[in-house]
Amino acid sequence: MQTWIFDQVDFPGETFRCYIKDLYQENQLVNGAFTLNDQPVRLANITCPLLNISSKQDETAPYESVIILNEKVSSEDNNLLELRGPYVGMVAGRGAPKYFWPKLAEWLELRGESLG
Q1: Are residues 68 and 30 in the same domain?
Q2: What is the rounded distance in angstroms from the CA atom of residue 58 to the CA atom of residue 23?
Q3: pLDDT digit string (tens) for 16-38?
Q4: Domain total for the chain?
Q5: N or C of the chain: less Cβ packing under 10 Å?
Q6: Which of 47-51, 88-92, 93-97 has the highest mean pLDDT?
């Protein structure tokens, strides 16, 4: 786990500054102001099946920030899976095989070919 945490790709300084300003400080993606290659990025244009995974104990991606995605997309198949613990622990911790992986497998199995 330590190797994974510290095995990061270098992120150019100016790109990081723009990323923080646009997406964190100004919340442009949620507010509908974010553009990519001069094209607007609209969360409402997302219509594919969505499984959003969150935890009320996660400090990296706070629950209140994560669940907004479910409100902004247009997906009819729109799901929120609430788990316990921090984000890495939810999917890779000792409870993941019991609490996360079976739920993810069920979600994927129910959608089968519609995801491929």
Answers
A1: no
A2: 19
A3: 999 999 999 999 999 999 999 99
A4: 2
A5: C
A6: 47-51
How far is residue 9's CA from residue 68's CA, in Å, rounded to a whole number?
28
Q: φ and ψ at 43, to 5 degrees?
A: -60, -30
* C-alpha–C-alpha distance, residues 67 and 94, integer Å: 24
pTM across the whole model: 0.80
Residues 58 and 108 in one domain: yes
Q: Are residue 63 and residue 15 in the same domain, yes or no?
A: no
| Numbers of helices and strands, H then E, in the chain | 8, 4
- Note whether 31 and 66 are same-domain residues: no
Angle at the Cα of 16 from the Cα atoms of 36 and 18, rounded to 5 degrees: 50
Range of the domain at 94: 43-116
Query: Is residue 43's pLDDT more than 90?
Result: yes
